[in-house]
Amino acid sequence: MISLTRSPAWEALLEHYRESCDLHMRDLFNADSERFAKFSIQLGDLLFDYSKNRITQKTVTLLMDLLRDRGVIERREAMFSGGHINVTEDRAVLHVALRQQDETPVYVDGENVIPLVRQMLKKMRDFCDHVRSGEWKGYTGQPITDIVNIGIGGSDLGPQMVAQALTSYVDGPRPHFVSNADGTQLSEILRNLDPRTTLFIVASKTFTTQETLLNAGSAKKWFLSRAGNEEFVAKHFVALSTNREGVQNFGIDPENMFEFWDWVGGRYSVWSAIGLSVALAIGMDRFEEFLAGAHEADVHFRTAQPERNIPMLMAMLGIWYNNFYGCGTQAILPYNQYLSRFPAYFQQGDMESNGKSISVDGVPVNYGTGPIIWGEPGTNGQHAFFQLLHQGTKLVPCDFIACAQPLNPMGKHHTVLISNFFAQTEALMRGRTLAEAKAELEAQGLAPNRVSALAPHKTFTGNRPSNTFLLKRLTPFNLGLLMALYEHKIFVQGTIWNINSFDQMGVELGKQLAKNIQTELAEGGRATRHDASTNGLINAYQHMSRD
Ligand code: F6P
Description:
alpha/beta, 23 helices
């Protein structure tokens, strides 16, 4: 295939960028009263408005020409049908099979995986029912009141974000999450827990991750120091993993292991057994609604034509800003407290997937790939970093997410929240001209010299792009829907950039070096094998940590 930046579709976009980059969205809205209708899509309970972007109909056409040209449609089909699209690890990528709603076979290397998925869901359901009903008892015969998910990365961020997002649906044991190697996190959580009523869920795809095994080992020690008998571990520790042997070696009965498979990527694993802590907290029926919501997004992604396909539009708008406008970051701004971990979750989802500079053919790319993903919930962000979004020198495309119906109605709170939500995207788009700023200052009765001095500071260029996602209500189904749209966006962008979105080799070097340093620290001698800075720091640490 001809290289990305030399392809006619890319060149057409470049030319279009040159001729359209000075257009102001204000003028585009003024010129077309149908712009919102043209550039918005309703999918179930979700309204996706992308009209506040620096695009015309021609931009969308050219972006979708590029999408078709780069084989996104074919690769999408390869993913859904179990092709080994994770080429470096020679694996299928089938988180979509975990949420498939019917029995249509999906083959991985000749084996239909749908029966495996069904069996696992059944095992999760039985277990959840047992624990939630109180039939599953701790070592003193008391029911489980608290669960602690011990994992990191995809084995933590997914269940943690989803459990938090669905807090108002929790009617089972209270979920807690431990991920950090810093023992402070585990200590602070254990401080308030009772070993007799606590269930530990050790979540690790590989069951080799240092932080997780460290935390799990310490949790087990804490438990045994209270329970006093190794036999009781079976009632208080379960594992979620693909590595049966690792689980057994750790001392967890394989009966208490909930399996998933190498075709489920860590950052796409919350739909698998990795979601057990969520299922225990909200019940299996609701967990299955969450899967069904994601499936609705899968069907949309697979069947809607590119010009009306939400993840494809999200992805191609991202390409437009990343590769043509040179934007290096993308903000995700949920105006919903329950979604406060949503940006962090997709920080891993996106940056671990598309933070790559080598193409699938093994050569360095000569164009920008994955953006930096960041964000905080609104309205807090408005009082922190929105200044830069509105008046800074950097263009930051933003995703705004909110729900029409609050789950905790309280006085005027929701009206205030949602008014700010709408106002921000309007302000980013419209801006305020110098003339408008002057008129406003004059209306306040300021002297002409003050008006002239202040007006430039009160001017907003506007023309700053945003997408709006308006959900009817934050339900398990709608959360699944929203998350799967973002997942598919990542897939489409990775395909355009010709990188493998499903490995994460960039995390390995640091892990290896940490192991060497750990040995050195245990030996306690003077560090000499590193660069001067690293040697100096290690030696200073050895000295400073003595008393
Ligand atoms: O180090 C990165 C990573 O491999 C992530 O991709 C993954 O989500 C996380 O570590 C945890 O891995 P595991 O589930 O195997 O413990």
